[in-house]
Structures are given as structure tokens and as C-alpha cells.
Design brief:
Blueprint (H helix, E strand, L loop, with lengths): L2 H12 L20 H6 L8 H8 L7 E10 L4 H11 L3 H18 L7 E4 L4 H7 L3 H13 L3 E2 L3 E3 L11 H8 L3 E3 L7 E9 L3 H12 L4 E10 L2
Length: 230
């Protein structure tokens, strides 16, 4: 064992690094998530019933070629814990890792979208200032690292501050996000991946999609880290 590994083990002993999924101490070269959690994450799978449910949410947007989610979001489940840490505890490394793992698995399964650009769903500038970052940017960054598809967090802007979607009906959610996005950069004739953290009714992502299509986007692929049972 070299000096670097000895020093790392000593630091871990004094200041233990914990897994974001189970809170157990990370060992050796483990980073952010332990090996057991990486294996047991509640993956949805490409051809599952949940995938069909996700696709149906965007049936009215013909230019949406495909939709995929990485994990199933359940109350008090592992996906909820990880995304809560990402959004509210400043654990930015969780976002990059989840995006990277999602990209790796899409690539390995042969289902990587044929897109030329990844666009993250933007936060309003006030909310981003409070949080310090946009969690969807981190997901896009990780997915881009795994797949080589470039990403941008500046092409789309949220121009109106909105109340939280939590607790609203599907129609209320659609009304709440109507007209909240605007383009800041041209994307004519591009095939675009839109990436976000959680899909519930799909209202926010549908509004994103319609904004991109009005700007001349050719095809859309919608990806989220988690799909909530709704």
C-alpha cells in the first residue's frame, strides 16, 4: 500500500465519507455511492411498463421521439433520498454521478438518443441564486461526460418565477408553467435531449418541448433521472 492510500484511509477514519444512498461509510475507491447502492438502485429499464407510461405523457407532442427515466421515484426510496440531497443539501456530486451513470447505461444498452445537443431544464434566476446551482445542469454535465454529447445550460431561460408544482393537479401544473420559458440561443434544425430530475405529470417538460419546437428544434428526446408514480 502506498503513502497516498495510507493517507486516504487515515482521513476516512477521522472524517468518514458516507454513501449518499445508505449513509454507510465509503471504502477504498468508492465515491459518492457505495458499490451496493450502485448495484441496487431502483432502475426502470428501457422496455418496462413504466417506460410506456412515460412515453404516453407526451403523446400530444409528436416531435418527442423517445422518453426514458433512469430510476423509479418512490416515497422514502433511494431515488428520493439522492435527489433530495442533490437539490437541498448541496451534494452536487450526486447530480454529476447520476447523470454519468444514466448516460453510461443508455450507451451500453444501445438506446442512446441520436441527439446533437443536451439542454437542461432551467431554474428561475431567483431560485438558482438561493440554491447556488441548477441541479439539472449537473445531471446534463454527467450525461455529457458519459456520452460525448455536448450540453448547454444557457440556451433556454425560465423567464417567470412560478410556485412549486407540488400538490397541484395536472391542469393546475400546466397552467402554472404556461409561457415560463424562452429561448436565449438559436437551435434551428437540431435534435435535442431535454434532461431534468423528476417526471411527474410532465407539464414542465412539455412546456420546455413546445418552446424548443417553436424555436425550430427538429426532434426531441426527454430524459429524467427519476419517474414518480403519480
Amino acid at each position: 500500500m502506498n503513502l497516498k492510500n495510507i493517507l486516504k484511509d487515515f482521513i476516512d477514519l477521522i472524517f468518514p465519507r458516507c454513501c449518499g444512498g445508505c449513509d454507510m461509510s465509503l471504502k477504498g475507491n468508492e465515491e459518492t455511492l457505495c458499490t451496493a447502492c450502485r448495484i441496487t438502485l431502483p432502475r426502470i429499464g428501457v422496455n418496462s411498463l413504466s417506460s410506456d407510461v412515460m412515453q404516453y405523457k407526451f403523446i400530444n407532442v409528436q416531435q418527442v421521439v423517445s422518453t426514458h427515466s433512469f430510476l423509479l421515484f418512490t416515497k422514502k426510496g433511494k431515488a428520493q433520498k439522492l435527489l433530495h440531497a442533490l437539490k437541498y443539501k448541496g451534494c452536487k456530486e450526486v447530480g454529476v454521478l447520476l447523470g454519468f451513470m444514466f448516460g453510461q447505461e443508455m450507451l451500453a444498452s444501445g438506446n442512446l438518443p441520436g441527439a446533437t445537443l443536451i439542454i437542461s431544464v432551467p431554474l428561475h434566476r431567483k431560485k438558482k441564486k438561493i440554491r447556488g446551482y441548477n441541479q439539472s445542469d449537473l445531471l446534463a454535465e454527467g450525461f455529457s461526460q458519459a456520452t460525448g454529447i455536448p450540453w448547454t445550460g444557457t440556451a433556454l431561460e425560465r423567464v417567470r418565477y412560478t410556485d412549486t408544482q407540488t400538490g397541484k393537479s395536472k391542469s393546475e401544473r400546466r397552467e402554472n408553467v404556461k409561457g415560463v420559458f424562452a429561448m436565449k440561443e438559436p437551435i434551428e434544425e437540431q435534435s435535442v435531449i431535454i434532461i431534468d430530475d423528476v417526471l411527474t405529470t410532465g407539464a414542465t417538460l412539455e412546456e420546455c418541448a413546445e418552446t424548443l419546437l417553436r424555436a425550430g428544434c427538429k426532434q426531441l428526446y426527454i430524459l429524467t433521472i427519476a419517474l414518480a408514480r403519480h
